[in-house]
Every structure is written in C-alpha cells, then in structure tokens.
Amino acid sequence: MPVVLPGDVLSLPSTSSSASIRLGPGLVYPSEAARTTAPTQLLVTRGGLVGKVDEKGKGKEKEKKGAGWWIEGPIGRYVPSPGDAIIGQITAKNAEFYTLSLNSAHSATLPVLAFEGATKRHRPNLKIGALVYGLVTSAENWMEPEVTCVDPSTGKGNGMGELEGKEGSCGMVEISLALAKSLLRPSHPLLQTLSTHFPLESAIGTNGLIWLRLSHPSHFLASKLVLESADRYGTAGIDELSAHSEPGEEEWFLKEKRAGDWGKKLAAGWGRLDQKEVARIVRSVVGS
Fold first, then answer.
1. Of 3, 13, 1, 7, residue with least CA distance to 49
2. pLDDT tens across 69-88, in order?
3. Which terminus has fewer CB within 10 Å in the chain: N or C?
4. Cβ 188 vs Cβ 201: under 8 Å
5. Is the CB of residue 51 less than 8 Å from the CB of residue 69?
6. CA distances from residue 195 to 189, 191, 226 in whole angstroms, order as listed
7. DSSP letter at 6?
C-alpha cells in the first residue's frame, strides 16, 4: 500500500483541472504558477495516505464535478482552520473578549458578544478555566484565530457555549487529531456503542479534545479508557489496511477510481473498536 512522505510530488489523474481540485491538509501547489501550468502536480507536506472526496456542483453547474484531496495520517499539533468545531479553555479575559487555549501553537480570541442572545448589557460572564465549545471563524497566518459560539448559518447557539457539568462526572479527554476528526463523522460507531452501556453527552473538538458528561465518575473513567484504546487501535490502522491491499495497487495514483480510497478508509475507520472490546473495558471499571 503506498504511503506518501513530505517532499513527494503527487500526480493526480490527468482529467483533473485546477478549477475542479480542492486541496485539504497536507497538499499544496509547488508554486503559484503551477496552479495553472501543472494543476495535477501537487507537493506533499506531511506523511500519510491520500484521501479523496468527490463533490458535485450546485444550480446551473450541477453536472460539473470536483474533488477534494488531502493527506490522512497522524498529526502532531492542531492548526486552526475556519469552520473547525473546537473546545477551548479560557485563560484570560477583558471587557471585549476572552482568550482561549486551543491545544495549539497559538491562543484564540472569543468576543464577549459572540454568544446567542448576547448584548452589551446581557452577556455571559465566564470564569478563567471554563471550557467553551465553538467554531473557528478566521485563522490567518498573521493574526490570532477568532472563535464564535453562534452558528453563522442560523444565528443560533446550536449547543455551543460554555460546557458545564457536575465535577467528577464530566470532564475533558485529550485524543489524537485523527480520532477526533473520525468521531465527528455521524457514521462512526464508537460513542454510539459506548452509550449502550450508560447514557452520555459529548462535545468533540477537531483540536483533539472531547468533553464528556455522564451520571457517575466510574462512567467517565470507563469512557476515557475506551477512547485511549481506540487511539491505540487507530495508530495500527495503516497496518490493517495494508494487510488487505490488492496486487498492483501500488499504482493507485494512475487509476482515478482507486485514487484516494486508502486515505478515505483510514479517516472513516480510525479508532473503530469491536463491541466486545468496548464491553470488556466498561466491565473492568463499572462491573457487570
């Protein structure tokens, strides 16, 4: 199974054009000129497997198809991107905004009016150390990222804001960025399987943090152990996919139908634990 490394040149199918290509994490054009002169030649900036998502146009351009390409693999540190759902901890505040730690290289700002229903007279008064669930609205290279707790499409909070709960039965768990992104997929079964053993509420941040609220401290401990085990499984995902590879798939990048399959499989399957394994971990903490 092919794995790309930083510095490799990725050759996309010749039928692709710059207008139909959207680049995700791990891929860039070698230069601005290459965007038009050689749109199918991309430079890899991190190691992993290539992922691809097909997308269709809208309205009059419905028949036009495009594709999103990215590199799927372990990531060391979170880099904020607009639209990311994040969990941040308040580290400072003033009259205009809160400062959030995002588990990344830089802090983020959260305006005090960026909450549903907030006004200059009536606005949340969050304490230092409080946890907040929100969306990244801007992330420029020369500025601190900005976060909001209001969904731009609806103007509502939609569950964003301060994360509250009784001490001991709720808390935050740090997981890998790959597992966090995989858990955000509605089809991922891990949290659904865990909820068959006890009720839970969760908020997942793409910055590698997950907040859990449960009815008993032992349930939180069991959930933490399940997530840690899922992360260990996820790091072995490449080996498992490789064991099921087919002869000749080393030439995957020459076959448009196969291109990106491995990265997509890894992204969707990262951290999938067998139901029996989840049950075993829960029983070891909570009991039968």
1. 3
2. 888 776 778 888 888 999 99
3. C
4. no
5. yes
6. 10, 6, 12
7. T
